[in-house]
Design goal:
CATH architecture of the largest domain: Sandwich
Helix content: 25-40%
CATH topology of the largest domain: Immunoglobulin-like
Strand order of the largest sheet: 10-9-12-17-14-15
Largest sheet: 6 strands, mixed
CATH class of the largest domain: Mainly Beta
Number of helices: 12
Bound molecules: copper (II) ion
Shape: rod-shaped
Radius of gyration: 50 Å
Structural class: alpha+beta
Length: 539
């Protein structure tokens, strides 16, 4: 209520009769501000009852008072009240009416003043809260611009490794309330900030993570769920009585668990298999030279690994068959002796030759024997295999081998090796269960191949892994020159990993610079874990 209002000298001369006959005239100058009614009483408007407007002593920005219309209504009530008094025989003077009006106005404005105070306080609170939110948003916005949200990065550190919470520059799980924000809250709320800090500790997810990490440092969560408590061992510390093995197996390799221990390589494999590693020497081309070979079919049970016997079909008693090495231009006779076989078989060579020598339509019946003849070309490395349907039996059972056709002038001298990589479908279910180099799963892992520093090594790699679409040859601690198919004298790539489809092959040449033990294996984890892995021991 405005203190500058002036109290009119007197209530306009009226009485009950006058009120009946006249409209009460009241100053209409009651302007309103944007959001509150502001009293701008004219000279005839009764002044506020006290200097501070409503007498309650609260300073305020709001000035609530009766509007002109409300004052007119109040005035009418007083006039009506005077009329009632006169009807009861008590005629009131103008001064008495004025006093009654003042009394009522004073009471109403006191009430309004209290309401105004309440509204003002609420208004102030809302404004303060609004400002608080705006300030916080502004600070957060500035903080985001100054320091972009860090992204998780791949670091060479163990999973779940606890880290110092204050270490700068490293990604940490974002707490619900950041410490930085907590400091803001302390500044904004003063003592209430202490409570905010307590809340930060409770809501900081890292706290519980750190506790778990300190307890189970480095243990994969899945392993920890089964009771493992050391970083590297997910089996020895498991309580097997509580381990759901089918669950574990089902979650690895579609039910065939890689945790199943590989039974181990043969201690004394077939010497013919061992002999395959180092092929016979290359021969300089000689016009008119004839080479003769005999492949004898055997269908028999053989040992593949410790405790694993398998009914295979093979050339010359081994899977794979013998390495056939000729020189480009040689006339080659290969006799297939199927006299002991129970099924028809054939030999189909990759390379260039007439269709009537291709081994597809030239079937040697069980008990039969015949000879295929061709001129060896081009130089390269090739597979040979039986080509009788059903192929998943005649090929996957083991009737395959390596054919090397040397260039007319042999490649430079080297420590030459042949590695035919294959798989064995032990249950004849259409997928391989173990894998090998030269037919001996895991053998060269247990019996490393000796190599010499500075020595040129040349590996003829042939992939005859049925069922698996892809195999690979990965060499550790080195790179090799690779000649796809061996059909060139120059390598086409320097690599450490070549992926090979079925019947793919090539020549890998490399020299070791440092002594040590180096793995060579399929980079398909399952294949390497199930036998296709070996070691070069370089001295
Ligand atoms: Cu066959």
């Amino acid at each position: 209520m405005s203190a500058e209002g002036t109290r009119p000298s007197r209530f306009p001369a009226r009485n009950a009769r006058w009120a009946h006959n006249h409209r009460v005239s009241w100053p209409a100058d009651v302007a309103a501000s944007e959001d509150m009614v502001v009293s701008r009483q004219g000279p005839t408007v009764p002044p506020p009852p006290s200097a501070n407007g409503n007498g309650n002593g609260h300073p305020r920005k709001l000035n609530l008072t009766l509007s002109g219309e409300e004052r007119e209504h109040l005035k009418a009530e007083v006039v009506y009240w005077g009329l009632q008094q006169s009807q009861q025989g008590r005629v009131l003077s103008e001064e008495q009416l004025q006093a009654e009006y003042d009394r009522r106005l004073n009471g109403v404005e006191h009430m309004l003043g209290d309401l105004e105070s309440d509204v003002q306080q609420e208004y102030d609170r809302v404004r303060a809260a609004d400002q608080l939110l705006r300030d916080r948003e502004e600070r957060q916005q500035r903080a985001r611009v100054a320091q972009p949200e860090p992204r998780p990065t791949f670091e060479a550190r163990p999973l779940l490794q606890p880290e110092p919470p204050s270490e700068p520059g490293r990604w940490t799980p974002k707490p619900v309330v950041t410490r930085r924000n907590a400091l803001k809250l302390i500044g904004l709320f003063g003592l209430q900030g202490a409570a905010a800090v307590a809340a930060v500790k409770v809501t900081d997810q890292r706290t519980s993570d750190a506790v778990a990490a300190a307890t189970n440092a480095g243990v994969p969560p899945a392993a920890a769920a089964f009771g493992a408590s050391t970083p590297m061992d997910v089996t020895s510390d498991l309580d097997l009585t509580k381990t759901n093995q089918p669950f574990l197996a089902a979650n690895f390799n579609k039910g065939s668990s890689l945790f199943a221990t590989f039974p181990g390589s043969l201690t004394n494999p077939n010497p013919a298999n061992l002999a395959m590693l180092h092929p016979p020497p290359a021969l300089l081309a000689k016009p008119g030279r004839v080479r003769e070979f005999t492949l004898t079919v055997e269908e028999k049970v053989i040992d593949l690994a410790k405790g694993i016997k398998w009914a295979g079909w093979m050339y010359n008693g081994t899977i794979p068959g013998p390495v056939i090495r000729v020189t480009q231009g040689d006339t080659v006779h290969v006799t297939l002796d199927n006299s002991a076989g129970k099924h028809p078989h054939s030999v189909h060579f990759h390379s260039i030759h007439p269709g009537n020598q291709d081994g597809v339509f030239q079937i040697i019946q069980a008990g039969g024997k015949a000879t295929y003849t061709f001129t060896a070309k081009p130089f390269g490395v090739f597979p040979y295999h039986c080509h009788i349907a059903p192929f998943d039996q005649h090929v996957a059972r083991g009737l395959y081998g390596t054919l090397i056709i040397d260039p007319p002038t042999p490649r430079p001298p080297a420590n030459e090796m042949v590695m035919l990589i294959n798989g064995y479908d032990l249950t004849f279910a259409g997928n391989n269960d173990i894998y090998s180099v030269n037919g001996m799963p895991g053998y060269y892992q247990d019996h490393p191949i000796p190599l010499k520093i500075g020595q040129l090594n040349r590996v003829y790699v042939v992939n005859m892994t049925e069922h698996d679409e892809l195999n690979s040859f990965h060499l550790h601690g080195n790179m090799y020159n690779y000649i796809p198919m061996g059909t060139s004298l120059k390598p086409s790539i320097i690599t450490d990993t070549v992926h090979m489809g079925i019947a793919d092959r090539g020549i890998a040449e490399f020299v070791y610079e440092y002594p040590g033990q180096y793995l060579f294996h399929a980079h398909q984890t399952e294949l390497s874990m199930k036998g296709w892995s070996g070691i070069f021991n370089v001295t």
